[in-house]
Amino acid sequence: MNHYHAVVWVDHREAHVIAFNQDEAEAALVHSGAGSRHVHQRAGSVSGARAGEDADFFRRIGAAVRDCGEVLLTGPAAAKLHLYDWWKRHEPTVAAKVVGVESADHPSDGALLKHARAYFEATDRMRPQA
To answer: Which residue range is the domain that position 105 belongs to?
Structure first.
């Protein structure tokens, strides 16, 4: 994906990745190998342990945005935060591209792209102009 901006909507089963510019967009769907496994603390469980992170899933999402300059992470619950934390520990160059983390339910790809374009248009105007 050779676009400067990207938006990632992620839950624990899949990630919708859209790289885009003002005129075009390229979408990819990345599936987790873990099925419906959730990565979270199990309060009240016997071990209190958390399910293992799906490193391959997180790595493949990172590969999808590696050539982008800025990334907006979205999604329900904590999956987006787990992804971002994993990137900070294991792929800091990808984590450095994240400019925002927002909650979002389950938008269509069209609605996700529309939101991301508006987000980046607003943040780009806030940056100093060279």
So the answer is: 5-126
